[in-house]
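Prompt: May I have another protein with tokenized structure?
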Amino acid sequence: MRGFGFAEHGGLDRLRYVDVTEPVPGPGEVRLRVGAAAFNRLDRFTLAGIPGVEVDRPHVLGSDGAGTVDGLGEGVDDLRAGARVLLNPGIWDATCEACRAGRESLCRTYRIVGEHLQGTAGEFVVVPRRNVHPLPDGWSFAQGAAAPLVFQTAWRALTTVGEVRPGDRVAVIGAGGGVATAAIQIAKLLGAEVVVAARSGAKEAGARALGADGFVVTDAEHPLDRRLWEWSGKRGLDVVFDSVGAPTLPLSLRAVARGGRVVVVGATGGPNVALDVRTLFWRQASVRGSTMAGRAEFEQVLGHLARGALRPVIDSAYPFPEAASAFARLDSPELFGKVVLQGPSG
């Protein structure tokens, strides 16, 4: 099977089309013929090599995918070949204590398609039946591939972990990535007042079109904490959604109100952070980590997407022969939303 990924870890120069064994669905599994895949920042980290995460190589990238059912493993009798579906890229064992409690993202063997397992940027991908969902009516494969990872990440972070309530003041750090475009919409759906913080005003119109109430531009003279504090009327933020990490987390904490929550979903700017614990305890604030989502959380946000209350944002779509250009688009300062790759047979 032909896919797009790498044979050796490294930079963009390591990207290539690779040949891997065509996957065969085992008991309880479904094979999907990929109509569209989508890239995430996670793919950059997987390419570079994540400490402690070993992958089979050659490795196919891509966590998100949508397409048609191509094969059914033993025991799967409630799907038909050719059905249009999308996949949930989070894989759990369904047997551990966390899974039995409905907290699948805390599964000790939790894995992600495209990171720990072969990804979606190829002809086929195999996942458990429980990870396959009908493509919402009227959706293209590109829309189906653009939604799953970022919307489930933002949904769990803001609802379960961040505990956003109507009337809360919520800040989303960063304007252009797929998870930010999802977070803006979800925070508004939850009834929050939303401000987006970015390093330039180029994406303000896009953020406001998604529902943002405010937009602040930060720089050395106007640091993040000060800009958010001023925007909030010097009351502070109830929740700060931070996917950047080292450069922003200390400032995000300084911008929260008493009892505020900083929810961390990524570390695109670096993983090691020094915090002033005096701010943490005096404001009785908290820093909370969140990743992916449980099964029920995924189904909840997918329901909102299917009824049109939320929508996937696609920055650009590329044919399969232009996969390297699609991947490079992740680094573009103009990026706004998800980068989608058409499947090889699409």
Notes: The first strand starts at residue 2 and ends at 6. The chain has a mean pLDDT of 96. The chain is about 25% helix and 25% strand. The two ends are 15 Å apart (CA to CA).
